[in-house]
């Protein structure tokens, strides 16, 4: 079993409801045991600013399946929820990113673990730090809490949703 962390986000439709539905689907993935999910955060868009704000969180699960299989199942959940990929970093009904998979490092054209931008994104680090502040980024060899402390993301707004 490998401990996997999944970034969850939505900025179309009922954003929180979309994220909650994605978590419910994660709870039923074959070959995975759902552990927990962070609270939800309202976050400013990163990469393409002219769009609605996101609701973001991070889920944690233990996986017996390979990272490639897990990615395929995440993409199936996205498709099943109506995700249509039109532009990079554009609006989306749901986004599920495989952030970490144990201490694995994968560098393939369509699968990169750890997620290549996670250490730069406050909307990932805040909920990840809530779920497991001591998880180690296998490339940077730093904990989630340390990376968040060092982040210079003042322009990235992250607010806990009530």
Describe the structure.
This protein has four helices and ten strands, in the order βαβββαβββαββαβ. A hairpin with a 2-residue loop joins strand 6 and strand 7 (111-113). The mean pLDDT is 93. The longest helix is centred in the middle third of the chain and has 14 residues, at 67-80. It has one domain: 7,8-Dihydro-6-hydroxymethylpterin-pyrophosphokinase HPPK (Alpha-Beta Plaits). The protein is globular. Strands 1, 2, 3, 4, 5 and 10 form a six-stranded antiparallel sheet that branches. A two-stranded antiparallel ribbon has the order 6-7. The protein has a two-stranded antiparallel ribbon with strand order 8-9. It is an alpha+beta fold and 162 residues long.
Structure summary:
With 162 residues, this protein is of the alpha+beta class.
Keywords for this structure?
4 helices; globular; 162 residues; six-stranded antiparallel sheet
List the helices and strands and how they pair.
Layout: E1 2-10, H1 15-26, E2 32-37, E3 41-43, E4 54-63, H2 67-80, E5 95-101, E6 106-108, E7 111-113, H3 122-131, E8 136-137, E9 142-143, H4 144-150, E10 158-160
Antiparallel strand pairs: 1-4, 1-5, 2-4, 3-4, 3-10, 6-7, 8-9
Helix pairs in contact: 3-4
Report the CATH topology name: Alpha-Beta Plaits
Helix content range:
25-40%
Q: Judging from the principal axes of the Cα atoms, what is the shape? A: globular
Any idea what the CATH architecture is?
Answer: 2-Layer Sandwich
* CATH top level label: Alpha Beta
Distance between the amino and carboxyl termini: 34 Å
Helix-strand pattern: EHEEEHEEEHEEHE
The figure for the number of domains is 1
- Class by helix and strand content? alpha+beta
Low-confidence stretches: none
| Percentage of β-strand residues | 25-35%
The total count of strands amounts to 10
Characterize the largest beta sheet: strand count, sense, and whether it forms a barrel.
Answer: 6 strands, antiparallel
CA-atom Rg in angstroms: 14 Å
CATH superfamily name? Answer: 7,8-Dihydro-6-hydroxymethylpterin-pyrophosphokinase HPPK
State the helix count: 4
Averaging pLDDT over every residue, what do you get?
Answer: 93
């Amino acid at each position: 079993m490998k401990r996997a962390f999944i970034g969850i986000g939505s900025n179309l439709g009922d954003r929180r409801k979309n994220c909650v539905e994605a978590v419910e689907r994660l709870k039923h993935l074959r070959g995975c045991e759902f552990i927990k999910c962070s609270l939800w955060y309202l976050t400013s868009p990163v990469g393409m600013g002219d769009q609605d704000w996101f609701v973001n969180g991070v889920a944690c699960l233990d996986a017996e399946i390979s990272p490639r299989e897990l990615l395929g199942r995440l993409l199936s959940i996205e498709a099943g929820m109506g995700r249509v990929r039109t532009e990079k970093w554009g609006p989306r009904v749901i986004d599920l990113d495989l952030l970490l998979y144990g201490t694995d490092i994968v560098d393939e054209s369509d699968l990169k673990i750890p997620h290549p931008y996670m250490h730069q994104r406050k909307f990932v680090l805040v909920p990840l730090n809530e779920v497991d502040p001591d998880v180690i980024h296998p490339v940077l060899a730093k904990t989630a809490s340390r990376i968040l402390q060092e982040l210079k993301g003042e322009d990235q707004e992250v607010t806990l949703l009530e």
